[in-house]
What we know:
The chain has 6 helices and no strands. The protein is mainly α.
Amino acid sequence: MAKRDNRKMSVEEAGRRGGETTAKNHDKEFYQEIGEKGGETTAKNHDKEFYQEIGQKGGETTSSEHDKSFYRDIGKKGGETTSSEHEKEFYQEIGQKGGETTSDEHDKEFYKDIGQKGGEARSRQRRN
Length: 128
């Protein structure tokens, strides 16, 4: 029988050991399931403003720690993964939803401005 050390364990050490034991005893599906449950509970307890605030904080922190190439790389990886997992209909559906949301949130002036900016950018590209 192993001799037990009677010193007190720190909270960090206890958490680390517990995490290691849990990881040994459970698979990916377990973590997906508890993550989904946690997400559902959090969604019930918080409003849109809560998510906007934590998203902004996370975005600011990430932005301060990474450069443009980081975003390019993760965007490419995410796009490739999404593309491999979805059919054309998925993109049509999310594009339509995004268009409807944007339409609900912006007026005619917004579309006029972005159309003009896009035209100017395209014109500069053709000259170069």
